[in-house]
Amino acid sequence: MKKINTKRKEAFAKVDADKLYTLNDAIALAKDAAYANFDESFDVAFRLGVDPRHADQMIRGAIVMPAGTGKKVNVVVITSGENIAKAEAAGADVVGGDDIIQKIQGGWMEFDRVIATPDMMGKIGRVARILGPRGLMPNPKLGTVTTDVEKAVKEQKAGKVEYRTEKTGIIHIPFGKKSFDNAALTENFAAIAGAITRAKPASAKGTYMKSVTISTTMGPGIKLDTNDIANILG
Fold it and tell me: Average pLDDT, whole number, for the chain?
């Protein structure tokens, strides 16, 4: 434990808490400060000038990471008819209908995403109290309730990440692993920042992107220069 605490202190000492870093410098610094004995995830936190208590300022969506997420995603598809074969061909891990719903009711939760076709949503209501609190309930706004199961499965497998504003106006999104090269992390970050920028509510007043901080799983937070982000987005 003492050795870990020493590494942690050394890692945090590398970051100037009062400095705003460019994205390139921040990624390099985050990698240098990552001290855990596993492939740490990269995370970004956007602190936005919105009030999520107002429905029109609740930002929620999903984005496919151009360079993937580095994580294996177990996808369940609840559907019927010819869509069963389509979902299986697209790479879904488990496909079914009533049998899947019954398994979930029985406590089975060995999956990361649930995709459903509209005809099954009435039945899925029986497990809404199980899936909802875990953020797994299929939602048409997130592309997880759809008639195009092939596209939905491929997007989830490729690294589609969901996000939403927390009560404090912050959005946390993972965007890669320490093992990713810097170009891949930059590509994923730019895709996220672009999506958040485009989602700015018309009713939001004042500064929209108040602060942006990146970090690895165990590493220190590194604040970004929002002007640099604007330049990256063009």
Answer: 93
Structure tokens at 232: 């990256």
Q: For residue 107, give Cα distances in angstroms to 99, 102, 103, 146.
A: 13, 9, 7, 25
Which residues lie below 8 Å from residue 197, measured CB to CB, with a gap of 6+?
Answer: 208, 209, 233
CA distance 127 to 67: 33
pTM for this entry: 0.79
Q: Is 207's pLDDT higher than 70?
A: yes
Q: Percentages helix, strand, coil for the chain, rounded to the nearest 5?
A: 40, 20, 35
Q: What is the pLDDT of residue 204?
A: 87
The closest of 87, 86, 127, 85 to 103, measured between CA atoms, is 127
How is residue 43 annotated by DSSP? E
How buried is 81 (Cβ within 10 angstroms: 0-12 exposed, 13-18 middle, 19+ buried)? exposed
One-letter amino acid at 207 equals: T
